[in-house]
Amino acid sequence: MVTMSQKVIDSGCTAFQSYIKRCQDQVETAMRACLNAQTGCAAALAEAMVYATFNGGKRIRPALVYATYETFGGQWSVVDAIAVAVEFVHSYSLVHDDLPAMDDDELRRGRPTCHIIFGEAMAILAGDALQSLAFEVLVTGLINVTDQRHSSGLELGIEQKLNVIKTLAAASGTSGMAAGQALDLSATGQSLKEADILLVHNLKTGCLIKASIEMGALAVEGIIDTDLAALVEFGRCIGLAFQIQDDILDEVGKTEQLGKPAGSDKGLRKATYPAIMGLDAAYDLVRVLLDQGLSALQDLSVPAPRLEEIACFLVERDH
Which CATH number characterizes residue 153's domain? Predict the structure, then answer.
C-alpha cells in the first residue's frame, strides 16, 4: 500500500529546494536587519549573536510560518516578524544547549559552537539577548501590522495578536523547550518508558515546531477553529517525527554529514527512541507520525502542498 507520505515525497524536489531557499533568503534578510539595528549593543555581544544565528541553519521553523500563512493566501512580508522571532528563539536554545553545563558540544553545523569561540559567559549572554530580541521583534512587528493594515489587508484583533505572543512564550518556557531540556537532563543515564521520552521530545523540540505553524495560522485574519485545530495536530505530529529522526541520525549518521559529533546521544547516555525501541521501530514510528500529520492536513478547508513538502523533507533529511 502506498502511504500519503510516499506520494508526496516522490514529487517536485528541485522546486521544493528553490522554495526553501526563498524562505531562507526572506527570513535572513529580516534577521540581519534586526541584528544590525542593535546599535547600543556591546561589540562582542553583537558579534556572538550574529555568529549564533548565521551558522548555516536550514530555517525550517520560519519556512513553516511562511508556508502556513501562504496556505491561506497571505504575503510572506506580513509575517516576517513571526518568522524572525521563532528563529531567534531556536538559535538561542541551541547556544544554551551546547554549553558545557548542558550537552557540552563543541560542534554545531560543522562549526565551533558559540561558547568555543566567544567563551561561556558571552555565549550565555548572546542566548539571553536573542531570546529578548525575539519578543521585541514580535511585538514590534504585530504593532506595525496594525499601522499597515490598509495596505496589507490584515486586521487582527488584539486577542489574536496576544495569542501569537503567548504561543511563542509557552513554546519557549516551562510549557515547552525549557521544561523539555530540564527533563532531558534529568533523564540522562536513566531507563525511561516510551511515554516519558514522548513527553521530553514533545516539549524540547516539538513545541517550537508546532508553535511555528500555529503562529502562522493565528496571523490569518478570520482563521476558523477547525483549520487551526488541524494545523496544531499536524505540527504536533511532525514536531515529534523531527526529533525522532534526529535521534536516528545521531546513531546512523557521520559527523561530517551531521555537522556535529555523531553518537553524542549514546555517549551521554541520553534517552532516545532508538535506544528503547531499536532503529527499525523508530523508523516505523517516524513514518506513522508523518502519515498522521499529512492526514490532519486533509481536514483543512484549503490545500496545503507546501506544508506537505516541508513535513516530508523533515523526515527524509540526512542531517
Answer: 1.10.600.10
